[in-house]
Amino acid sequence: MESYRKARKESSSNGTVLLFVMPPYITLPLNEGKRGVIFRRFRKYEEMILPHLSPESQMDIICKARVFECLTFNGSVYPPSLQSEMRAMYGKRLDVREFVNACKIATDCCK
User: Fold this and answer.
1) What DSSP string runs through 85-107?
2) Residue 110 near residue 36, CB atoms below 8 Å
3) What are phi and psi of 11, to 5 degrees?
C-alpha cells in the first residue's frame, strides 16, 4: 500500500506560516507486546483528559488519546481522515502541531 504524506500549512498566532508533514497510514503492529503498550498508552491519555479544563489547554492529550483510541479499537489510523473528524469537532481549537506529534508518537510505537 502506498504511503500517504501531505504537507499542511497552518498560520501561527504571530502570522508565521508553519509546514507540517502528515505521517503515513498508521497500522497496529502484530506484536502482542507492542499492542499492549499501545492499549496502555490509550488508557493513560484517556485518563489524563480533565473534563473541567478547556480543550485548548489539553489539546496535546486529546490528540494522543484519539489517535491511540483509533489504533486500539480500529487497528489503524488514516491521519487525514482523523484530522478532518477532529477539525469538525474542535474547529480552530485543533492544534495541528499537536495532532501531527500524536501521529508521530503512534507511528514510533508501531515500529
Assistant:
1) HHHHHHGGG--HHHHHHHHHHHH
2) no
3) -95, 135
Question: For the chain, how many structural domains are there in total?
Answer: 1
C-alpha–C-alpha distance, residues 8 and 55, integer Å: 22
pTM: 0.81
Q: Does residue 40 fall inside a structural domain?
A: yes
On whether residue 99 sits in a domain, the answer given is yes
Q: 26-27 and 7-11: which strand pairing? A: unpaired
Sequence letter at residue 17: V
Q: Which amino acid is at 53?
A: L
In tens, the pLDDT along 41-77 reads 999 999 999 999 999 999 999 999 999 999 999 999 9
